[in-house]
Design a protein that fits this description.
The complex is a heterodimer of chains A (about 230) and B (about 325). In chain A, helix 3 runs parallel beside helix 6 and helix 6 packs parallel to helix 7. In chain A, a hairpin with a 2-residue loop joins strand 9 and strand 10. With about 230 residues, chain A is α/β, with parallel strands linked by helices. Chain A has a six-stranded mixed β-sheet, with helices on both faces. Chain A starts with a strand and ends with a helix. Chain A has one domain: Rossmann fold. In chain B, helix 2 crosses helix 9 and helix 3 packs across helix 12. Chain B has one domain: ABC transporter involved in vitamin B12 uptake, BtuC (Orthogonal Bundle). Chain B is mainly α and about 325 residues long. In chain B, strands 1-2 form a two-stranded antiparallel ribbon. The chains are: A alpha/beta (about 230), B mainly alpha (about 325). Chains A and B meet through helix 2 and helix 3 of A and helix 9 and helix 10 of B.
Chain lengths: ~230, ~325
């Protein structure tokens, strides 16, 4: 059984039917990319896994437990971290506080600091700065770091390269690559080469459904299916 | 009285007079507004019942003091009883506030903010009428300050002293300033040094992200609503001894207006903003009150200027002085 299973999920924003029967699975230790054009339901799929946008139909199973309809904080405490699209820093909290808040009440804050500053040494010089004052790349590192602490086994990563300068994207890609070696990752990424580089498998979404899936090995943007669904 | 003629009679030590009144009013306003600020900041809930809880706190605190203080009770014992009454009222209203959040507010989180406004406004009507009935049954006049409760203050607080050429209630004002300072320090320690404080600061910025980090935001809402209600009651206990306020049913509306002005001027989601705005509003209020008494014959001057400050902030800086979200955008 896969660590994460999404089965025939239908999710809505109000009356807008966004996910129309999405099914996918992610095995333990795997990195899986969700690709597709803007507005096809990639972010909503991540939100539905976390129950931030609870599915009206279908089920989400994590580590053998049906989490559909459960409160988001319970899903998060099962070991699911979220690195959201626009980073969503607590801008008035310091970097240390952003890490501390992600550590469970019974967790080891010292160990969390070690994990974060070990993975991102650049952040250590900015521990006492408010996160809102950091550069975009540094904020992305804090966002990834926040998802890592607390013993999270799975990371839902949404558009980590969005809005970043190319050299920063490279640093973030290196960081994600290191994370992917240790954790299970479900990645939403518009940067096609980056997504294919990081992921083991992919799911291609269009109009709220999965239209293709498979191994990322050898897949290029020129492939017929990819071209049809990713071209503007 | 004309303004020109009156200016000639301004006391030499007017700045001292205004200063001590400003310090005490600033402290009172910060305490009055702090609970509303925490609730508004984290939950985005406009708790119109905040003033009613302050009024109930004043009556409950007064009742404890009237029941326990006799003519022979010494000054120190009265202080001790005051703090015990304050702790009891804080605890009781914290519990009631938490129960109200679970039973009444929680079921309507998913609805428009208008529902929360209507619900808490309904609570104002119920609580104020209930207080009026109980107070009248107790043989008290609900519209005027409860003099028996004011009379339980130690002589040091009730007396006027002539210091630096200013004849005023130095003891009471200094006491209010010290209690206000202690409340501010306690809240800052709670927000800055405790896990729940961290949750509140984070949740004020982005409650959804906080949930995604494993924080049970609903439980945090219950705790904050309870603590906010407890702080409203604590403010009432503090006002119960002050002849400018005192326990009365209209105290409900009086304190609610001040609390809203302070929270909006300070900025939603920022307790530090509330403290800064409380001081600003306290100084403006004390200055305008002094001008009304000594210079300008216009009773509505303090309220007029305070609302002018509120309107100016809303137009020029809708986030308030130190706010993290615009009014109406939270």
């Amino acid at each position: 059984m896969s660590l994460l299973e999404v089965d025939d999920v239908h999710s809505y924003y109000g009356e807008s039917h966004v996910l129309r029967g999405v099914s996918l699975s992610v095995d333990r230790g795997e990195t899986v990319a969700l690709i597709g054009r803007n507005g096809v339901g990639k972010t909503t799929t991540l939100r539905s896994v976390l129950q931030l946008t609870p599915p009206r139909r279908g089920t989400v199973t994590y580590d053998g437990t049906d989490v559909t309809g459960r409160p988001t904080h319970e899903v998060a405490r099962m070991g699911v971290g979220w690195v959201p699209e626009d980073r969503r820093m607590f801008s008035h909290l310091t970097v240390d506080e952003n890490v501390r808040i992600a550590t469970p009440p019974d967790g080891d804050v010292g160990a969390a600091f070690e994990t974060v500053y070990g993975a991102f040494p650049e952040l250590e010089d900015h521990r006492d700065r408010e996160a809102g004052d950091l550069s975009g790349g540094q904020q992305q590192m804090v966002a990834i770091a926040r998802g890592l602490v607390g013993g999270n086994e799975t990371l839902l990563v949404d558009e980590p390269s969005e809005g970043l300068a190319p050299q920063i994207v490279e640093a973030v890609a290196d960081a994600l690559s290191a994370v992917a070696a240790e954790a299970t990752v479900l990645l939403v990424e518009q940067n096609f080469p980056l997504a294919m580089d990081l992921a083991d498998r992919f799911y291609l979404l269009d109009q709220g459904t999965v239209v293709a899936s498979g191994s990322t090995e050898g897949v290029t943007r020129e492939d017929e299916t990819i071209r049809r669904y990713l071209s503007a | 009285m004309t303004a020109v003629a009156a200016v000639e009679t301004v006391p030499l030590f007017a700045p001292v007079d205004v200063g001590i009144r400003a310090v005490s009013k600033a402290a009172l306003y910060v305490v009055i507004a702090s609970g509303l600020s925490l609730i508004f900041g984290l939950m985005g809930v406009l708790n119109f019942a905040h003033g009613s809880l302050t009024m109930i706190g004043a009556y409950l605190g007064g009742a404890v003091m009237v029941a326990t203080v006799s003519a022979g009770t010494g000054g120190v014992a009265r202080f001790v009883l005051f703090f015990l009454a304050a702790a009891a009222v804080f605890g009781l209203l914290t519990g009631i506030g938490a129960a109200v959040e679970v039973a009444l507010i929680r079921p309507i989180y998913d609805r428009e903010p208008l529902f929360q406004i209507l619900l808490t406004f309904g609570l104002v009507l119920v609580l104020d009428e209930a207080a009026r009935i109980v107070v009248e049954l107790a043989g008290l006049q609900p519209q005027t300050e409860w003099q028996d409760a004011i009379g339980t203050a130690p002589a040091f607080l009730g007396a006027r002293y002539d210091i630096l050429g200013v004849d005023t209630r130095w003891g009471l004002y200094a006491f209010e300033a010290l209690v206000g300072l202690a409340v501010v320090v306690a809240i800052l320690l709670f927000l800055g040094e405790t896990r729940y404080g961290l949750y509140i600061r984070a949740g004020s910025e982005d409650a959804e992200m906080a949930q995604a980090l494993g924080i049970d935001i609903r439980r945090a809402f219950t705790v904050v609503f309870g603590v906010g209600a407890g702080l409203a009651g604590l403010a009432g206990v503090l006002l119960m001894w002050d002849p400018r306020f005192g326990a009365s049913v209209p105290l409900s509306v009086e304190t609610l207006l001040v609390a809203f002005i302070v929270v909006i001027v300070g900025g939603l989601g920022s307790f530090k903003g509330t403290v800064v705005a409380g001081v600003l509003v306290g100084v403006v209020d004390a200055l305008m009150s002094w001008l009304f008494i000594n210079v300008v014959d216009f009773p509505g001057l303090p309220e007029l200027v305070l609302f002018a400050v509120l309107v100016t902030v809303l137009v020029v800086r809708p986030k308030g002085l130190l706010g993290v979200a615009e009014v109406g955008g939270h």
